[in-house]
Amino acid sequence: MNKAQTQSDFFIPRLAVIGVGLIGGSLALALREAGAVGEIVGIGRGLENLQKALDLGIVDRITQDAAEGCRDADVVFLATPVRTLADVAAAIIPSLKPGAILTDGGSVKAQVAQEIEPLLRDDVFLVPGHPIAGTEKSGAEAAFATLYQGRRCILTPTKSTDQEALLFIQRMWATVGSEVVLMDVTKHDRVLAAISHLPHMVAYSLVNAVGSYDRYEENILEYSAGGFRDFTRIASSDPTMWRDIALTNRDALIEMMERFERFFGELKEDVRQGDDGKLFDFFQRSKQMRDEIL
Amino acid sequence: MNKAQTQSDFFIPRLAVIGVGLIGGSLALALREAGAVGEIVGIGRGLENLQKALDLGIVDRITQDAAEGCRDADVVFLATPVRTLADVAAAIIPSLKPGAILTDGGSVKAQVAQEIEPLLRDDVFLVPGHPIAGTEKSGAEAAFATLYQGRRCILTPTKSTDQEALLFIQRMWATVGSEVVLMDVTKHDRVLAAISHLPHMVAYSLVNAVGSYDRYEENILEYSAGGFRDFTRIASSDPTMWRDIALTNRDALIEMMERFERFFGELKEDVRQGDDGKLFDFFQRSKQMRDEIL
Ligand SMILES: NC(=O)c1ccc[n+]([C@@H]2O[C@H](COP(=O)([O-])OP(=O)(O)OC[C@H]3O[C@@H](n4cnc5c(N)ncnc54)[C@H](OP(=O)(O)O)[C@@H]3O)[C@@H](O)[C@H]2O)c1
Ligand SMILES: NC(=O)c1ccc[n+]([C@@H]2O[C@H](COP(=O)([O-])OP(=O)(O)OC[C@H]3O[C@@H](n4cnc5c(N)ncnc54)[C@H](OP(=O)(O)O)[C@@H]3O)[C@@H](O)[C@H]2O)c1
């Protein structure tokens, strides 16, 4: 029995991480720290990021050949932008060993499940997942072992999801300190459209609106250290990742964007009309809801 | 020479703070800590908050009678919601001693200056100001001595502002660790509409849109700890304060809200049309601007 196995009774002999960035790299670091993993293979598109991941001790070996890197893996964690997930899955599924579990950390779940499930073999299992944790940073250098501690991880099994594989991935996330929640895939995409995707669209729009005003007016962003900087932190997130999220969760996102527009428009009318009572109520209602979030 | 005066050569023998909340209370604490103030009188509307301010050692004595409390003050700091500032000023100006300096921390400056300047006496000086510092908390309990350290404080003198009084208030803010910036009053209100008032309107609308969706749908806010909670922190700010800001900076705010609506609407159309390139550019532009903010 090796040292790792004495520390945790959950163990993945061989893990492959495709996309060793913030999400993939952090899972690798956390599983290693928990003594819950044997060899970790890092797979990616560019050598530069992979080399960093190797240098930082996030993975044990690296390759740009996804099929080769996954051949002996017990678990493959897909952590590339959501619109690349199906292509990556297609490239590796034929070479996976029987019993391998494929799981992912993609921010949108319906389209991913729809695209990957038809590609599966009978002896390869898919468990779609989404850790509700992150920062605005990306790449291997952004990864850290405690990212998932005390955070939720949503798994969205479908009716074809293997129950043993599901249980195994639940234990994986519990091992890195997350609370696992099972959720219907459509509900996941609507909830995330509301609490994550919409806020990102709002933040990106806010920075563009204020920042470009600046260009031909006074140096507005010069005064924006502090509050504005903190509020708009999420607008520093990776453009590719967010383009992919916006495009794969389009319907739910548009619905939430339109809902936001109605509320914002109503508030603007209350400001324009100088409506004391309505303005107070609007702010008060919002404060109450916000204060209830633990 | 007392101990206080040896610590700092800036000194206010008697300071009156009207509205001993986050902004007023923090200035009192900071000046005291710098040894830059003798007696501090706390003035307010309700006894409960005043009593807390006294218990917390923020002020030396308290009164609900503003005129009485300010009678001997060298400096009066107005820190009540912006739409109350003129009434409060009107109530105290007749009883101020000759040479007294009236200054404020209100978040909107044009209307305040317009309303208070006509009320002034020849021997009482007004210096309009706005510390760019704050939290979403309010009341005396929210005050802390380091709030202004390393932050900017904007003063917006008009052509009738006394130069000596201006210099004195500049030194006051420098004493509590702020970098003082002088700015044209109209520019102040436009800059703040962009970097502070608009973001608050956005955050309040976002929480209302998402939180009320929750009511008849799935328990969305339950999943909103973390990112959403952090992003919407400013929507926990005081409704009275923000109603007053929205109403007194109406024109600049509406202009910025409409500007934001255009950008947000453009983004929504790009999402609807699934326009890869435009979406990437929108996010990329925003990330670049955001990353430039120090
Ligand atoms: N960031 C968050 O807050 C967060 C939270 C939850 C879930 N997620 C999801 O997690 C996934 C990864 O996000 P992240 O934040 O970790 O991004 P990241 O830090 O940019 O990492 C993604 C990695 O994937 C690699 N990659 C990109 N395209 C690839 C391809 N076609 N084939 C192989 N490798 C590729 C990139 O390396 P190269 O540049 O070398 O290709 C990069 O290192 C996304 O699906 C995202 O939606 C993100
Ligand atoms: N919070 C920020 O981030 C921030 C930043 C910069 C500037 N400001 C400005 O600073 C001022 C104060 O804001 P704050 O955050 O310190 O608010 P706060 O914590 O709520 O304090 C305001 C205080 O004023 C008192 N008050 C309210 N109406 C009054 C009246 N008519 N007469 C006398 N006292 C009255 C309140 O006490 P009672 O309830 O007992 O009346 C309260 O303690 C506002 O003008 C605001 O725009 C705020």
TrEMBL record, chains A, B:
<dbReference type="GO" id="GO:0008977">
    <property type="term" value="F:prephenate dehydrogenase (NAD+) activity"/>
</dbReference>
<keyword id="KW-1133">Transmembrane helix</keyword>
<comment type="pathway">
    <text>Amino-acid biosynthesis; L-tyrosine biosynthesis; (4-hydroxyphenyl)pyruvate from prephenate (NAD(+) route): step 1/1.</text>
</comment>
<keyword id="KW-0560">Oxidoreductase</keyword>
<dbReference type="InterPro" id="IPR050812">
    <property type="entry name" value="Preph/Arog_dehydrog"/>
</dbReference>
<dbReference type="InterPro" id="IPR036291">
    <property type="entry name" value="NAD(P)-bd_dom_sf"/>
</dbReference>
<comment type="similarity">
    <text>Belongs to the prephenate/arogenate dehydrogenase family.</text>
</comment>
<dbReference type="InterPro" id="IPR046826">
    <property type="entry name" value="PDH_N"/>
</dbReference>
<dbReference type="Pfam" id="PF02153">
    <property type="entry name" value="PDH_N"/>
</dbReference>
<dbReference type="GO" id="GO:0070403">
    <property type="term" value="F:NAD+ binding"/>
</dbReference>
<keyword id="KW-0812">Transmembrane</keyword>
<dbReference type="GO" id="GO:0004665">
    <property type="term" value="F:prephenate dehydrogenase (NADP+) activity"/>
</dbReference>
<dbReference type="InterPro" id="IPR008927">
    <property type="entry name" value="6-PGluconate_DH-like_C_sf"/>
</dbReference>
<keyword id="KW-0057">Aromatic amino acid biosynthesis</keyword>
<keyword id="KW-0520">NAD</keyword>
<dbReference type="GO" id="GO:0006571">
    <property type="term" value="P:tyrosine biosynthetic process"/>
</dbReference>
<dbReference type="InterPro" id="IPR046825">
    <property type="entry name" value="PDH_C"/>
</dbReference>
<dbReference type="InterPro" id="IPR003099">
    <property type="entry name" value="Prephen_DH"/>
</dbReference>
<feature type="domain" description="Prephenate/arogenate dehydrogenase">
    <location>
        <begin position="13"/>
        <end position="294"/>
    </location>
</feature>
<keyword id="KW-0028">Amino-acid biosynthesis</keyword>
<keyword id="KW-0827">Tyrosine biosynthesis</keyword>
<feature type="transmembrane region" description="Helical">
    <location>
        <begin position="12"/>
        <end position="31"/>
    </location>
</feature>
<protein>
    <recommendedName>
        <fullName>prephenate dehydrogenase</fullName>
        <ecNumber>1.3.1.12</ecNumber>
    </recommendedName>
</protein>
<keyword id="KW-0472">Membrane</keyword>
<dbReference type="Pfam" id="PF20463">
    <property type="entry name" value="PDH_C"/>
</dbReference>
